[in-house]
Specification:
Layout lengths: L3 E6 L6 H13 L8 E6 L5 H8 L5 E5 L16 H6 L4 E4 L2 H6 L4 H13 L3 E6 L3 H5 L3 H13 L4 H5 L2 E4 L13 H19 L1 H5 L3 E4 L7 H5 L6 E4 L6 H9 L6
Helix pairs in contact: 1-2, 1-12, 5-7, 7-9
The chain binds phosphoenolpyruvate (PEP).
Length: 256
């Protein structure tokens, strides 16, 4: 049974005080979660431990790092390794967000190294993929996403890919207010699941959670999450507003 996940990506927003206030407002809503549902908070590095402590008594709530280094350890000033993240008991890490691909030149090859280090250090990677507007307009999105998955993930074993979460985030829909229609999201998610099935078999593919990201909000979450191959969302802007994110968590599919 694959997990349904509402993942908040705070990016480089909020002070610690503001972040903990947001978390507490979400906790106060006492959201009922099914065993297959999770809420994940990808917070800035300095807030990881405090956020983990704040949610410690809340089942199905987890914390994620937003990135990890592509090297194991050593003289890489300013970097944070997968091992360090694991050493403070953080279970998830986002890898390959389009902002990191664009502003920090993270290539598919670099991301493959990060994925390997995350998995070697017992972190669950949330691997982001997705095309730009130019690629979508020339109808090349399927090949583009297939290449991203192939070059960063397809060296993994069946066991390793089964521990990985994929987030499809069309770049043209991130932070722009433009959302892929639920049909566009379903179409790409089904395509990703088929690529996974062709490589690893349908049993493995059926059990991998594929999240949608790109201007998910309280108002459109049910529509998007109800698509058969969409297993929740990776949410930027709307995750910074308590009521928005509470509704988004409540919009996750209930799988019996
Ligand atoms: C994101 O940062 O991954 C994202 C999808 O942002 P937004 O929800 O603001 O589009």
């Amino acid at each position: 049974m694959r997990k349904q996940i509402a993942a908040a990506n705070w990016k480089m927003n909020l002070t610690l005080k503001e972040g903990l206030k947001l978390i507490n407002e979400i906790l106060e809503a006492k959201i009922f979660m099914e065993p297959t549902q999770e809420a994940v908070f990808a917070v800035p590095f300095p807030y990881l431990i405090d956020t983990k402590n704040a949610i410690a008594d809340t089942p199905n709530f987890y914390v994620a790092a937003q990135n990890c280094a592509s090297e194991k350890q050593g003289a890489y000033t300013g970097e944070t390794s997968a091992q360090m993240i694991n050493s403070i008991n953080i279970p998830y890490v986002i890898i390959g967000h389009s902002e990191r691909r664009e502003y920090y030149q993270e290539t598919n090859e670099i991301l493959a190294k990060k994925i390997n280090l995350a998995l070697a250090n017992n972190l669950t990677p949330i691997f982001c993929c997705g095309e730009s507007l130019k690629i979508r307009q020339s109808d090349k999105q399927n090949e583009y996403v297939q290449k991203q998955l192939g070059e960063s993930l397809f060296h993994l074993s069946e066991e390793q890919i089964s521990k990985t979460i994929i987030a499809y985030e069309p770049i043209w829909a991130i932070g722009t207010g433009l959302t892929a229609s639920s049909e566009q999201a379903q179409e790409m998610h089904a395509h990703i699941r088929k690529i996974l099935a062709d490589k690893y078999g349908s049993v493995v593919a059926e059990n991998i959670s594929i999240l949608y990201g790109g201007s998910v909000k309280a108002i459109n979450a049910v529509d998007i999450f109800s698509q058969p191959d969409v297993d929740g969302g990776l949410v930027g802007g709307a995750s910074l507003v308590a009521n928005e994110f509470i509704t988004i968590i409540k919009s996750l599919k209930k799988i019996q």
